[in-house]
Amino acid sequence: MSAQLPGVQPAPTALSSDDPWEIGGYRLHARLGAGGMGVVYLAYTPGGRPIALKAVREEFAADPEFRERFAQEVASASRIHGLFTAQVVDFGVDARTPWLATAYVPGPTLQQVVRRHGPLPVRTVLLLVAGIAEALQGIHGVGVVHRDLKPANVLVAADGPKVIDFGIARAADAAALTGTGLRIGTAAFMAPEQALGLQATAATDVFALGALAVYVACGAPPFGEGPESAALYRVVHERPDLVRVPAELRDLLGRCLAKRPEDRPTTGELIAAVHAHPVVGGRPEFAEGWLPHQVGDEITRHDAGRAPTHVQATVTASATALPYEPPGRRAVLPVGLGGPVPAGGPGPRPGEDADAAPAPRSPSPSRRSSRPGTRGPLVALLVLVALLLGGAAVYYLDYPEGEPESPDAGRSPSAPPTVTVGPSGPASPPAGTAVPYAPGYANVELTSPDTSYEFDLGAGKVVPADTASWYLARGADSFVLPEESDAFVATGDELGVADCVRGIERRPVTALPFAELAGERPFCVRSADRKEIVLARLVEVAPEGGAVTIALEQHRREG
């Protein structure tokens, strides 16, 4: 695991009950990501500008030596100015929880772009190399080495790449916190000297830039992925795999990946090489058309939405993710500063459509259609209110002993739902009956380029085959499930957590053919320990074993 603070993610998720409300005088609005060194939140300045606020983990914050180095690195990072970095805007190195705030860039990471759209054209790769090299010049100019340059730490904006999380991980070097499972850097993009524990220099970042460019050009890092130990061995002892890299890029990227730091080009030499490259034609400009049109369209949507739209989309998605609760179930929702909502909650006025709120921008695996007379809109409205007031979207699906009861048992279909709320979080359900689930990642759209990659359901990412413990693998015409996992395919176009649990108990499936999932028909997978559920939709299947894209939404069992 990398000890680096994670990259800014463009799809915020609701704050959990463990998250603080405020850090350094900034009110937190959503969680952007988490990693080995801390958690990244979306916050706003008093004037309303979005920022990415990164809070350090407790075990780092408790180490005095780490705090001293953290203060030094933040001071250096604050001096970095440039078009290709996320500017530091504030920090709290002496706070109980040290933190750092940078400008928020509402765009996808390079990792997300490649996963969604595949390898990028040669000219785009060259422009990225020049832009990132220029960012590294600014970083190195104040004596900072990034140390964890990778696709997830480069954001793609209309005017070029933005490098994030520069230099902070270096503070952990002296903190004696690099024990088992915690390494400074990411194995697949780590230079040999870094893998061997030697001093990192500007040339270390150039090596990482070469590995990043290979990934962008062909969809896989030059030394493979898989177990960290195996990747580190290949980085130190083996030649990079450049077979799938376009011929126009091999020489330049191969020089970046030289084993000896002194054999690698400098950042200035990289920029000059891009200028001189015939594909660029002496015009290395981030003008219109520098990105493939489908990626440019995605960037435009991000820029049009900015941070507030993304947060609203996430809150709406979290609310609509709540399943339709059949009679006999109970939704238990926490309430924030506004106090409890009365049972039954504020429903729509006669003649109004409770589902009239704007839908999320990206397709949610559990999206719901407007249907008058159902209770889904009421529950969704209550959750939306709770989220806007600061509560976490945690809910309980109560089942009696034994089999789930019929939706019509013991109650009229038109009877209102039983909604229980409390001023300080979820109410305690009866012992042995509550099955609480809380949202995990949401609105994640992933693309597996071929059958050598699978979907890691626990982490919400694409990984090489035979890597994840809980996965959704691919065959020629269907998904492949782990033997211990359960699955269910919806009969209609709606699926929530309660529907999934009930469906698995009544009509579980062992096969998920692509043909049966056409038209984004929803399905779900439950982990062997029954602690996680993923709601999914098949978005696209390329012919002849090509790329497969799915949308995922995770829910975790509490307790």
Explain what this protein looks like in three dimensions.
This protein is of the alpha+beta class and 559 residues long. Helix content is 26%, strand content 20%. It is globular. The N terminus is likely disordered.
Mean pLDDT rating: 73
Rounded radius of gyration (Å) = 24 Å
Low-confidence stretches: 1-10, 172-183, 305-434
Number of strands: 22
What is the 3D form? globular
Q: How is the biggest beta sheet arranged?
A: 7 strands, antiparallel
Task: State the distance separating the first and last CA atoms.
Answer: 25 Å
Portion of residues in beta strands equals 15-25%
Number of helices: 12
State the secondary-structure class.
alpha+beta
The helical percent reads 25-40%
Keywords:
single chain; 559 residues; alpha+beta; six-stranded antiparallel sheet; 12 helices; disordered N terminus
Summarize the model shown.
The chain has twelve helices and 22 strands. The chain is α+β, with helices and mostly antiparallel strands. The strands form five sheets. Strands 10, 12, 13, 18, 20, 21 and 22 form a seven-stranded antiparallel sheet that branches. A six-stranded antiparallel sheet has the order 1-2-3-4-6-5.
Please give the structural blueprint.
Layout: E1 22-23, E2 26-34, E3 38-44, E4 50-56, H1 58-61, H2 64-77, E5 88-92, E6 99-103, H3 110-117, H4 122-141, E7 154-157, E8 160-163, H5 192-195, H6 202-218, H7 228-237, H8 247-256, H9 267-276, H10 293-320, E9 330-334, H11 376-388, E10 395-398, E11 418-422, E12 434-439, E13 444-448, E14 453-456, E15 461-464, E16 471-474, E17 478-480, E18 486-489, H12 497-506, E19 512-513, E20 522-526, E21 532-541, E22 548-557
Parallel strand pairs: 9-11
Antiparallel strand pairs: 1-2, 2-3, 3-4, 4-6, 5-6, 7-8, 10-12, 12-22, 13-22, 14-15, 14-16, 16-17, 17-19, 18-20, 20-21, 21-22
